[in-house]
Amino acid sequence: MKQINLHSNKPNQAQHAWQQPIQTNNTQIGFSLIEVMVAAFVLGIGILGIVGLQVLSLKGTQQSSMRNQATAIVYGLAEKMRANIQGTIDGKYSLTKAEFDAYSCTSAVTTCEGNTASCDSDQLAEFDMNKVVCGYGASNRTGGIKAVSSGDENVLSDGLIEVGCKSGNCANGEVNIKVSWTERAIDKSETVTQHSDFIVLNTRISR
C-alpha cells in the first residue's frame, strides 16, 4: 500500500504573515503649501475679526464714559443750584454758548468752601460754575469741561455746558441744563467724522 504524506514542506503563509512588511499607497509626508496657505488665510480672517471687535469695544467704552461724565456734571450742577435757590432764581447760573467760549479759567473767583468761607448767593453761584467749567485744584485745573489747557485735562471732548431758564425768566425756578460733546467715528470708507451728542435736564428748582 502506498503511503501518502499529508505534511508539506511549503511554509505556512498564515503563520509568517506578520513577518511581511505592510504595504501602503499613502506616501504623503507633512503638509502641502496649499494647506498652509489656506490655514494662514483662515487664521488671518479670524484675527481681523477680533481686532474689529476690540475697536468697537473701545469705542463703546469711550462713549459710555463720556455719557457718564456728562450725566454726573448735569445732575451735580442741578444739586448745586438747589442748594443756592436765590442764586438760581436770580439767573446767576445762566450760561450761554458765547459766554462759555469766552469763559476764562485763569480769572480769580471768591472761594466759597471751608469753614471760614462766607459768600452771598451771587458769589456762590460764580464759584459753583467755575468748578463745573474749569475743574478743581489751584495750579492744575483738571476735571472740568473747559480746563486751563486742552487734552486729557478736559473730561469731555469739545465739551460745552449751557444753562438757561424757561422763557428767559428764572423767577419760577424752571431751568434747563445742557451738556454736549463730540465723538470721533470711522465709517466704512475709513473716513474719520465727528458726531455730536448731548444730555439735557429740564427741572424745577423750588424753595
Offer a quick outline of the entry.
The protein is of the alpha+beta class.
Mean pLDDT: 77
What are the secondary-structure elements, in order, as H or E? HHHHEEEEE
Beta content comes to: 15-25%
Radius of gyration: 39 Å
Which range best describes the helical content: under 10%, 10-25%, 25-40%, 40-55%, 55-70% or over 70%?
Answer: 25-40%
Count of extended strands: 5
H/I helix tally: 4
How far is the N terminus from the C terminus? 141 Å
Number of domains: 1
Side by side, the strands of the main sheet go 3-4-5
Query: What is the global morphology?
Result: elongated
Low-confidence stretches: none
The biggest sheet amounts to:
3 strands, antiparallel
Protein described:
By secondary structure, the protein is α+β, with helices and mostly antiparallel strands. It has one domain. The chain has helices spanning 33-83, 85-89, 97-101, 121-134, and strands spanning 135-136, 142-143, 160-165, 174-186, 192-204. The strands form two sheets. Strands 3-4-5 form a three-stranded antiparallel β-sheet. It has a two-stranded antiparallel sheet with strand order 1-2. A hairpin with an 8-residue loop joins strand 3 (160-165) and strand 4. Helix 1 (33-83) packs antiparallel against helix 4 (121-134). The radius of gyration is 39 Å and the shape is elongated. It starts with 32 loop residues before the first helix and ends with a strand. The mean pLDDT is 77.
